[in-house]
Design brief:
In chain A, strand 6 and strand 7 form a beta hairpin. The longest helix of chain A has 21 residues. Chain A has 539 residues and is an alpha/beta fold. Chain A is 26% helix and 17% strand. Chain A has a single domain, classed as 3-Layer(bba) Sandwich (FAD/NAD(P)-binding domain). Chain A has 15 helices and 19 strands. Chain B has 221 residues and is mainly α. Chain B has a two-stranded antiparallel sheet. Chain B has one domain. Classes of the chains: A alpha/beta (539), B mainly alpha (221). Chains A and B meet through helix 5, strand 3, helix 8, helix 12 and helix 13 of A and helix 1, strand 1, helix 5, helix 6 and helix 7 of B.
Chain lengths: 539, 221
Amino acid sequence: MRGVRARNESAWLLPLGDERTNHRLRDDMRRFDDDDEVDIAIVGCGAGGGVLAQRLARKGWKVVAFDAGPFWDPDRDWVSDERGSHHLYWTDPRVIGGDDPVPLGSNNSGRGVGGSTIHYAGYTPRFHPSDFHTATVDGVGQDWPIAYEELRPYYADIEGELPVAGQPWPWGDPHRYPHSPHPVNGEGLLFIRGCQRLGIDVRVGPVAITNGRFGNRPHCLYRGFCLQGCKVNAKASTLITHIPDALAHGAEVRADSMVSRVVVGSDRRATGVVYWRDGVEHFQRARTVAVAGYSIETPRLLLNSACEEFPDGLCNDEDLVGRYVMVQGAAQTAGRFAEEVRMYKAPPPQVSSEAFYETDPSKDYKRGFSIQCVGPLPITWAEHVAAEGHWGAVLREYMKDYIHWAVLGVLCEFLPLDDNRVTLSDETDRWGLPVARFDYSQCDNDRALMAAGQSKMEDVLGAAGAEETTTIKRYAHLVGGCRMGSTAAEGVVDGNQRAFAVDNLFVADGSVLPTQGSANPALTIMALSARLADHLASR
Amino acid sequence: MSNRGGQDEPAFPGFDVLDDASRWDAVTQGVVLSRVGPPPPIRFFTPEEERVARPLVDRLVDNDEPRLPLLEAIDQRLVDNEGPGYRNADMPEYREAWRQSCRFVDEDAVERFGVHFWELHEADQRAVLEAVRTAKDWHGLPASEVWTMWIGWACTALYSHPTAWNEIGFPGPAYPRGYAALGLDSKDSWEARERNARDRVPWAERLEAARRRHAPGGEDP
């Protein structure tokens, strides 16, 4: 493997000492004019957009990466507090519907440079090889136009750059991690104990948190507020893992800039993007455009970019934009233990099992689930208790027992369905842009998987010694909506993430995923962007 | 938190997260300490809504003694338009949902008991609310969505308050200090020491007492 620093110097560009941000690097950032035709305008500066900006800047491209939110400074902007972290989320209006509406807000898109990697837990598993051809193997979902092997080298590269800590990984394509596994908190120990008593394979990791110094990034402090933005610079986010190197190689990050439209000419080629900054509408010219705004905002932007050539929305000739949005079934089961667990300590991501990831031929459902630690802080734990129907004095008593509970979460591979889609609502936001409406309904396979996952978590916690368990149903990780396909009838983009309908328009986020596996999607989104950059540079 | 006839002594006696506030980073101090200062005035709710909303929120999370400024925290969020980031297609916008639901709660009280919600005994107020929790359609709104909004906002207000952290043994902000003792039954020196650690009986008894108080017709303090 090539040296990490030779391909991405971000960790060495952060300051040592008491500051978390290299202000000099930001002050000296290259700035393009709207009239400069840059090589690429990237919409969204999260997992997908951040990696793409860094890789292309390294290749000498003129890059402008837009984000609707701020250019965060962890020292000044983030707190060790749940309630005080609301500003990390995308909270502009959206509408949800369908038989099983998916709550948005705190559990999906981020707002600001780093995107959702600012508030994700930091679990970074790879997808399994089987994920790339579920239609052929299991008769469900859709085959990807690319195979696992095409992503493998990019997975390894990104794991080195985050870096990922964990035990050697036995599932999927077995592999090792660059950092050794973190010490485990009480909740993780109970998870391991329960699995060992049941003979279930379980491992510590994979977590994108430094375990030891990495460049100028320090060791994790185990303060437990990973989901509130890491003030330590220990948890990987593209704000610190890719953006510094992108700036050092001449990319511009244009924060606080809301892209409202991708402009396409009569020749069906993108010419740039319209964006709002400080209340003024601008147009940035670009030779190439990549959209990386998450599975809600990416389809919304394409639909809002309808024009003469594309009256039903950009790249929507086949009525595929916004369809096949997926979300993992993410039930959480809590167990009460005599021991003091104190799950608020250490990163919420700790331990996982992918023992049930693949289709089990003895079951009447297809595909599977993974199980991970959750470790909710008090407000999130109160929502769990309340979802059980408790309130008033009973809720207060459950809460007083907080330090005795441990929480596991399942990630079930819910299937892609065409009616699970993003459309435009009649409502508009403060820029006058129609807001996204997301309709979602489960299918029978989804419900069977969720029940199986719940039952397995109850078994594990019971085997670990839980005196009582409670489960709530919820969702996590939106992907899909502009999926890859082999043909224009099958997907919005091809296997290289290029729009079938517009030759110089690319989608560079989780929207392109045809299926989602039972893995947290961040690492796969980053690996795809690294691969996309190689493809673009070779065009 | 509430002390009812001595059966309800604190689980973490003497623990106060604010004792260590000077060890938090300055930005976090600013955010957390603002919650223990003077509460902001009510600006979003009209007086007609406030007199319903206050007992509504207090009953939802048994906000009794000491009574924390939970309605003030909710009101401030509503004034700041700090919304959830989505709206269920069957629900009005969240600020309108708060206004409407206050009105409907009072209508329920008048219809069922012949007096206003704020005039009811606490047990009857709980009965009005329990009927919402278990309803399907409620004044044309999906009851479960209304309930989730109410309880979610009330829990966020309560469990962001340091006094509530003391009650549940949560040490609050932990930066730049972090933790060293991560395992089961282990704690760093500043973490809360639990009365009757490892003994479930006191908790089970407290829970049963709470259930009795909370049940329909349960005693008022």
